[in-house]
Amino acid sequence: MVVTGAGVSLASGIPTFRGTDPGAVWANDVTELGTNKYFERDPVGSWRWYLSRFARLGDARPNPAHHALVALERWHVARGGEFLLVTQNVDTLHDDAGSQALVHVHGRADRVRCARVGCEHGAPHGSLPRDDAASQAFMSDPTLATVPCCPVCDAYLRQHVLWFDEYYSDHHDYQIERVLHAAERAGVVLFAGTSFAVGITDMILERGLSRGAAMFSIDPVGRAPHRRVQAITAPAEAALPALCRGLGAVANA
Fold first, then answer.
1. 3-class secondary structure for 106-171?
2. Which residue of 27, 42, 105, 176 shows the fewest CB atoms closer than 10 Å?
3. What strands lie across the sheet with 128-129, from one edge to the other?
4. Could you give the angle at the alpha carbon of 86 between the alpha carbons of 83 and 87, nearest 5°?
């Protein structure tokens, strides 16, 4: 099991969330802006904030860390093993690189959903591809009248991401049961580029510790959340390709 955070995408030009890089998102009050409560109070402000964040994603391309994880998956599965990549990132760089056994546990930036729970395009099962033309029309004139709306019920659309005042169980796409089941069975858990500051890493860590899994953390400053997690002090784009070379797994750039 591999769990990735924002540090994996930093080399692709996407700022981290809580990192020390100059563009780290945590410099803003995300615990207020990244909430359903804020969206309901100010849908225009919510859409503007997210579209400004997501604007960096359009030109981003997978870096050696993403390609190495594809190679690691293929290498392990070819030997009869089970593999699951759980990403906290809402970008699609793991998909673009070719990862197959992949869960976007915090949602996806390339999709939106109806804010009305129960709508066919809303929670707990529905979503829609992001309409770039509608997003551009909104940014040209950010008002309530231009906030993208659901094509079925005409309620406002929202970002298809997990907000701070929501739960992993709120939407099927987060696949929380699949993630926790895998965490309870994995013999090796590798964390890469994560600050261990959100609920999902705690849940996976707890399950790995309880069953004695071998656990590692790839982090440029050698961060590890527990003495039984071995820290690998290196950026993900260096450590993951090195791991593949050591295993004989070939990564395609």
1. CEEEEEEEECCCCCCCECCCCCEECCHHHHHHHHHCCCHHHCCECCCCCCEEEEEECCCCCCHHHC
2. 27
3. 128-129, 107-114, 157-161
4. 140
- Provide the b/e sequence for 193-206 (b: ≥16 CB within 10 Å): bbbbebebbebbbe
DSSP run (H or E) holding 194? none
Q: Name residue 250's beta-bridge partners.
A: none
Rounded Cα gap, residues 236 and 65, in angstroms: 6
Q: Which residues are catalytic?
A: 106
Give the tens place of pLDDT for each residue, 52-91.
Answer: 989 889 889 999 999 999 999 999 999 999 999 999 999 9
For residue 183, give the nearest of 163, 156, 196, 201 by alpha carbon: 201
Contact 149, 157 (CB under 8 A): yes
Tokens at residue 83, please? 């593999």
**Tokens 């071995």 belong to which residue?**
230
Q: How far is CA 26 from CA 12, 67, 85, in A?
A: 19, 27, 24
Looking at residue 38, its amino acid is Y
Q: How many Cβ atoms sit within 10 Å of the Cβ of residue 107?
A: 22
In whole angstroms, what is the distance from residue 87 CA to residue 76 CA?
Answer: 18
CA distance 246 to 196: 26
Crossing angle of helices 64-78 and 236-247, rounded to 10°? 30
Q: Is the pTM of this model over 0.85?
A: yes
Cβ(9)–Cβ(63) below 8 Å: yes
Tell me the sheet residues that pair with 149.
156
